[in-house]
Amino acid sequence: MKNIHSNENEYRAGMFNRNEGFEHIANIQPNSNGIIKPVAIELEEIIIFPKMISPIFITNNTDLSAVIKAQENNQTLVGLIKNNETPGFKSYFKTGIEMAIGSLLEMSHGTHSALFQGRRRVKIINTFEENKIIFVEAEPILESNKKINNKDHALINTTKTLFENIAQLDRSIPEEANMLINSITSPGWLADMVGAAIGLPYTKRVEILGLHDAIERLAFVYKLLKNEMDILHIEEEIRQMFKGKLTKVREISILEN
């Protein structure tokens, strides 16, 4: 199962279209042991964070059967993140994402697509198959409600400021992303939104998903932002250097003529 968009800018813009249409789908209620047992699909090269929406392209019958089953029961499902570090053996990262599914659309060549909305992180305890459909036993991970101290507030504010500076240099970041991020007060949600907005490698997005503590996650994202800012500054210096050289060449050419 892959993202329907091959264009990275289009994908990042889609992450912020928090449109309606998912309200009727409730999160699965845990049993007495705090465990949920939904159907699951395998995600490839895409991470959907909580509260975000992205189109998904469904390419195999196993995932399609799981999606149809979840829709028939008006339930969410879990996205499993494949761990490719163990070749020849199917394994998944310990953190997955519970998702709601929008309308299923049939595409060409027997493929399908749908919008998926991230709901909450889940800790994967076990996976098993029934009738060629993947099921999971998972524990929902809830965001902490602990009080934010002054140090946490400072981290939130500096992260927003740094992201705004990056957005001014990186034109691929949607304007609505900057506006939304400036309005966020939750450190966990802020970390997820920033992580989705900037052009991070897939492996870094997996790391962000796997960090359950909101402040720890935001601190990690802040470090990634600083690295991104350093790269953008270097790229800008190179552009200015070549721009200056080109101007000199043109001036010399004019004088010679």
Biggest sheet architecture: 5 strands, mixed, barrel
CATH architecture of the largest domain: Roll
Amount of beta strand: 15-25%
Distance between the termini: 60 Å
How many helices does DSSP assign? 7
Helix content: 40-55%
N-to-C SSE string, H for helix and E for strand: EHEEHEEEEEHHHHH
Question: Which of globular, elongated, flat, extended, rod-shaped describes the shape?
Answer: globular
Mind telling me the CATH superfamily name of the largest domain?
LON domain-like
Task: Report what the structure shows.
This protein is α+β, with helices and mostly antiparallel strands and 257 residues long. The chain is 43% helix and 21% strand. It folds into two domains: 2-140, LON domain-like (Archaeosine Trna-guanine Transglycosylase, Chain: A, domain 4); 150-245, Methane Monooxygenase Hydroxylase, Chain G, domain 1 (Up-down Bundle). The chain is built from seven helices and eight strands. A hairpin with a 2-residue loop joins β7 (112-130) and β8 (133-140). The N and C termini lie far apart (60 Å). The model is unreliable at 3-11 (pLDDT under 50).
